[in-house]
Write a structure and sequence with these properties.
- The structure is a single chain.
- This protein is of the alpha+beta class and 914 residues long.
- Among the domains are: 123 residues, 7 Propeller (Methylamine Dehydrogenase, Chain H); 100 residues, Immunoglobulin-like (Sandwich); 196 residues, no CATH class.
- It is built from twelve helices and 65 strands.
- Strands 59-65-64-61-62 form a five-stranded mixed sheet, with no helix packed on it.
- InterPro entries: Ig-like_fold, Quinoprotein_ADH-like_sf, Sig_transdc_resp-reg_C-effctor, WD40/YVTN_repeat-like_dom_sf, WH-like_DNA-bd_sf.
- Keywords: Kinase, Membrane, Transferase, Transmembrane, Transmembrane helix.
- It comes from Antarcticibacterium arcticum.
- This is Histidine kinase.
- One of its GO terms (molecular function) is DNA binding.
Length: 914
Amino acid sequence: MRIILPFVLILLLLQFKISFSQELTQPIQNFSSVQYGAASQNWDVVIDSRGIIYSANNEGLLSFDGQKWELHPLPSGAIVRSVYAHQERVYTGSYQEFGYWARNRKGELKYTSLMPLLKDYEMHNEEIWDILSFQGSIYFRSFGALYKYDQEKIIPVKNLVLNSMQVFNGKLILAIGKQGIFSLEENGELSPLPKQEILKGKTVIELEKDGKDLLIGTRNALYKFDGETFSLYEDSNLNGLLERYELNHILRISDVELVFATVKNGIIQYNKNLKNSRIYNRNSGLQNNTVLGMAVRNGKIWLGLDNGIDAINLSSPVNFYTDDTGELGAVYDVAFHNSQIYLASNTGVYQLNNNGLSLIEGAEGHSWNLEIINNQLYSNHNTGTYRIENLKFIPVESRTGSFDIIKAPENAGALLIGNYTGISIYSPENGDLWELNEVNFPVRKLIYENPGVIWASHPYEGVYRIGLENDLKEHKFIRKIGNPNKKGNYRADVFKVNNQIAVLKDNTWFKYNSFTDSLEIFGDLKDYQNHRLLVEANNGYWFTNVNTNGLVYTDFKDLKLQLSFKELNGRLVKGNEKVIPFNDSIFYLTLNDGFARINLNDLVREKKNENLSEPIIYHFSGSGQSYDLTSIPTIPYTTAREVVIGVALPDSDASGLFYELQGRNGLKGKVENGEIKFQNLAYGDYILMVYALSPQGVSSNTSKIEFSVMPPWYLSNLVKFFYLLIFLFLIGMIYWFNRLKLKKHRRTLEQKYQKEHEERLYKIEKERLMGEINSKRKELANTTLLGARKNEVLMEIQGELSKDKDKFSNQFRLKHIMNKINREIKNKDEWNLFETNFNELHEDFFKDLLSTYPKLSNKDLKLCSYLKMNMSSKEIAPLMGITVRGVEVHRYRLRKKMKLDPKENLTNFFIKNF
């Protein structure tokens, strides 16, 4: 920690602060022609009631809504010379042209020319240079005439040389050439103001109301009118500046402050009570010294320049010093010593005073740190460690570069130096220098835990705890403290917070527990993860947020202030930020190309009164088609492929603008460049909420817009109606089909039942017929067997008779009996009856047999039928009236006639095939 300086030195430093204050400037935003996308020259600037900035530009009307710039060219493409915001309109004047701009129902800024209201009146090469409102009417001033617009018509008031106009004490005041100052009466006549001899022969270029006074400006002097007499403004120093820099415009920004725009040297901020002036010009950060227009709102003044547009936050608690030459580079430390300010940067160590920067002799190169110990200024440099005396670098250690230097508490004369290779101990009394053994790693920072223990941070490998002997010659121990979360140790840093050793590793805070000799989570800093501690001073702590690159100040109680990266002009030296306490309220912050001075008391007041304007939703389009904002936009589904919502946040201290989309596609995000873009939104109803957040996390009032995305054509109401019809048709078709199916099923069941019934009947009939057939087959078999038996008996009788025929006396009678027996054996009636019964059982047997074997005889057919009945030769022989041998011979002949294989069984052949 830095040694507290004696009270006397503090007074000297305060005196230094006052003498150096002229070098510091308020934050300045520069908007170049490339950034706003228009011409360089901006003739006039105005701010409307919502905080939107309008500029009269060579290429048209420029607008800035806090998010983005837009150029609105005139239809003629002429230069806009003047601009004036009144109620919902923005009036502009140009060459032989004047009119107003207003947003239509779609949020588009459209121009309406008032020239047609002049009818037959002709302007003569006139340009409108000034516009104001008075008693409900709008007045347009050129250098040759005055025109009045009463919302219905344009009235040419006067044709004369007009240089300026202003409203004062309820009257319209006009500056007419070199004639003086006049008031325009209700009857249209001009009345000169009294006692203005002091202005005789002078050309008045500007009029401005200042409380009860009217300020009158010429090119080289300032006058005032108190309602009765004119006089030269009492501050001769101010008039001297105006004469030197050439007055152009006057702007009253508060009861006690005025701003004068000049042609040659920027602006002059003037305090009437203190009678002091502050100049902002190119050296201060303006883009150009010729200021053509001014406007102020909430402490921020906007300047229309001959080359660009600038904005100066006159009420900012942060002031900046900037080296525009580029010589200084990135500043790593600031020190105040013997009423001088010293800057350590990547290009060397410099002294800074009212005469500018001067490089310390021999201090070229990167310097990391400046430290005042025992009223001696030291520098930790890339080439070593040095004392700074009489603007010279005097080596302390030049063996290697160093990062840090601290005083040993128990050895008043000894200093510890953290260098690129370890730790060195230096005695300023006798110049002795030695190294601490076995510390062979780079040491970026040193912190004392107690008189016998120090902590050293390695740039890449974490932190070490080192025990020291009293004489600082030897160490007791060197212990690397591990990381509890097992992650890396890159950029680990060590601090002392409330007398506790705190270590930041991987953006997580730990504290050292001496009982366990290890690190544990630091609960008091749980809200400051991802924050690196910069300094502890006056019971307050400065952190840098590694995520947002902003600063945080807190007392760990009720106070928590945040400075965004934007508020610091985006100039922080990332990773090497440093805050240097000057006194209880003033802190210095290192930056690229300079430094900033922060007034903590003013910062507290400002942050408690942050201006958070309500966001403005001014445009809604889908795929390039704009929609009316006075009703709920309803966009086709195809248009929802790309929905763009224009959002403005004018005149706000917010650090960001955010949105939340409520609906089927729930989305959140940050607004970029004043536009919110959604792609491929699903159909349905949506609510878009837009809000701003301050650096302190405070939310502004929310603006919202409701809109709907129509369903695709195949989900539209008409198509849904057709879907319903189709659905009903399908239901009807299904019902009809089911009815048909039911009928068919019923018919099928009936047919099946009928078929089953018929099959049952057929089966019954078949069984009956089969029974009859079987019965007939049995009957036929029985009849045939009986016939065979009969014939067999007859043949036996015939045989017996033949044996004893000689014994018969009546041979004729015997022959008659024999013939009768033969006839009975060969009875055709029996065969016919057999054939009839056989055909009933075996229908088409003979027909099929003859179709296959047409050469078969009747005797052959008879044998075939007997074989079909599975009768043996012995059974067949009586029926055919032949012997069994004759049957066998007949069978042989039949097989041959039918050309059957001898091995083929005739009975099986006939049964299977016929």
